[in-house]
Write a structure and sequence with these properties.
Number of strands: 0
Number of helices: 15
CATH architecture: Up-down Bundle
Largest sheet: none
Shape: globular
Order of helices and strands: HHHHHHHHHHHHHHH
Distance between the termini: 62 Å
Radius of gyration: 21 Å
CATH superfamily: MFS general substrate transporter like domains
Length: 385
Amino acid sequence: MQKTAVNWLVYRLTGSALLLGLVAFASLIPSLILSPYAGSLIDRHNRYKILVITQVISMMQAGALAAIIFFKFYNIPTIIFLSLVQGIINAFDVTCRQSLMVEMVDQKEDLPNAIALNSTMANLARIVGPAIAGVILSAFGEDFCFIGNFLSYIPVLVCLFLMKLNLGVVEKSEKSIWLELEEGFKYVSGDRELSSMILMIGISSLFVIPFNTLMPIFAKDLFHGDAGTFSWFESAAGLGSVISAMYLANLRSAKPLKSIIIVASTIFGVSLILLAYSGILSLALVFMAFGGIGMMAQTSAINTYIQTHTIPEMRARAISYYIMAYQGMIPIGSLLIGWTAQAFGPRLAVCLAGVIGLCATAMFVVYQSKRSGRQLSFQTLMHLR
């Protein structure tokens, strides 16, 4: 609800696609800079305690944002600053949340299902939140959305305090955090499979996923709608994401993940090209839903692959590089697509995002084919010996 309200408020006040990109940039750029450090820090401390701390600070940030909107202090630099604060918190919170989830699953073969179910809950909120936000924005105004977000942290904290986790004692490391940061980079870069997955999600996050930044323009200018129309676009993407997550939650093993990444990335790219030049709102919403299917399956499958193919002592650090590539590249991409939309129009900007996504998918397929060929040749040679 808050994300929807911030985007709508900024565009209503400024009418600037560039400022829409700047707000997204401020909220996500800390993930690019801080995520590797956050991963090393979290590997050294109790993940549960860090998660509680990040939620308390997030509640304070939400309260500050709700207060300035409630008192009609419509100051764009202040909104951008508070978005930056939330981004700093999220750099630690998301890494901690992802790595803690592994500790919550008793049977490790259930981990792919747990990751997909977690994604389903997050994306269900993407359906309900924007839909409710659209109604509240139209009937009551932006301040109710921000106040609702602030109050939502109360049940979140209650749930956290009710959890009973048997986490092992974290031994104090003798190494400096900077040395562990270096070890994490060497581990990820030395594993060709992990590094190719992170590179794939990095390209997608830089050039493809930020298309969502332009949806207020599609809703308001191209389809002549209001806040409710904008919420339909968000909800359509969320619906597609939930469909995709439900499919992933029913996977019996992690073996087909590479194939899922390729198919999902293709669906994502094609959907954006069709969305870009759709002149009918209902068709645009359908293509938006398919875009949600592709985006969710791509990001979740890569996330699942990294979590299930990383050694435990490196898990938080490996996840931090995934988050850096995923969330950290989106703000830069948001600025790029905001500038492209300002210069060449929103339709061409979204179309280019889809084309780049398809090109990245083709390169990923070629790389995986060559790698599979090299592995097969090596196995054949060893068999002959």
